[in-house]
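Notebook B, p. 112. Complex prediction, attempt 2.
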Amino acid sequence: MVSLTINGRIVKAKDGEMLLAVLRREKIDVPAMCHHAAVEPFGACRLCVVEITRAEWKGWCDYVTSCLYPVSPGLIVNTHSDKVNELRRTILDLFLARHPDCPEIAELAGEYGVFKTTYETVVGGNNCILCGLCTRICDRMGFTAISTVGRGHGKEVAPPLRQAPPDCVGCLACAENCPTKFIEYKLRKKRVTIWEREFELLTCTKCGKTTITKDFAEYLSRHRAIDAGYFEICDECRRKNLAVSMGEIVNWERELLT
Amino acid sequence: MNHDLGRLPAIFKRYPKSPESLIAVLQDIQKEYQFLPSEALAETARVLEVPLSKVFSVSTFYNAFSLHPKGEKVIRICVGTTCHIRGAKQIQEQLESQLKIKAGETTPDLKFSIETVSCVGACAKAPVVIVNEKYHGPVKVSDYKKLVKGK
Ligand code: SF4
Ligand code: SF4
Ligand code: FES
Ligand code: FES
């Protein structure tokens, strides 16, 4: 354990732990659009920037992305100094120029008092901020169905050959974790379409509600040693059913003991 | 243009069957076919055990790779700072008007492609034009015939 000072308060943390994780635990609100606990920090959005210093730095400060900065003893952190807020405003200003129609960006920018970009607005862009969360998450789960394509101004997230991705299982994790809700999907009664690929959804044999896609269930039972039968009931029904199955176990134990 | 995949096994044989070989394999496919046919990308993914999306990502990242058939002769005009100052623009215009295509395009008979590249590290010879692998420089506007006809 190490001690550091955050916004004037002494805080304990694990040595080498990423600063953003400590901030989150301490309920200190710092914007972070490219961060997700499931994947390695990436440093793409730059919004989690904070000011750091140390007693021995004699007043010198540094500005670091907290998601990528490991803590060490004696670190002094300021998450909302004037300079930090100014840096975040500049980043949001740039985001606004590039994604003028993105409600999530507009909201965050508004919180920092940026309502209009001071840069030239990009025409014909989209709401993808290229944070890489979708591709990293898909990768982490073992599918790697989508990736970044091209580079520089033309860089985008897309499935291979810009066609329905063969390795996608329709889990929707990419879409649900996209900070700007850029990845679209369509849920219909028993089907879901994402990345222009349509998947069949399994339905709970008890209540009839849809659960996960057939492809995802197949993947889990084939590669992750989960019995395919597990997906025949939804979580809700499984919980409801707990009363019955646990009751049976309790009865059975009683019988054994008497 | 021959899209048959028959030439792929010989390429795969040159390198270890592992993800590290990806760029080398793609370079050889590009050389062999003058572009990366989509079937070849799928086959590369399978043989090297690299996810198809990663193969596509790499194929679209480097300018040296093309997903569309390129001409037999790829003419790359350097438009880096030095070459620009020394007249790359005029050379580009001349080549474009002679071949009746713009940079980034290929002639319908698949004989020529024109591309622009940034500094290729040969500023001493600016303005530089690279035809397939061969560097030419300093190039004059009147050299276009030599560039188009020569080897
Ligand atoms: S829906 Fe497809 S692309 Fe998205 S995370 Fe799941 S497998 Fe990957
Ligand atoms: S699609 Fe969403 S999650 Fe993926 S890179 Fe773009 S903004 Fe990030
Ligand atoms: S969360 Fe740290 S750079 Fe995006
Ligand atoms: S600018 Fe053309 S070789 Fe350097």
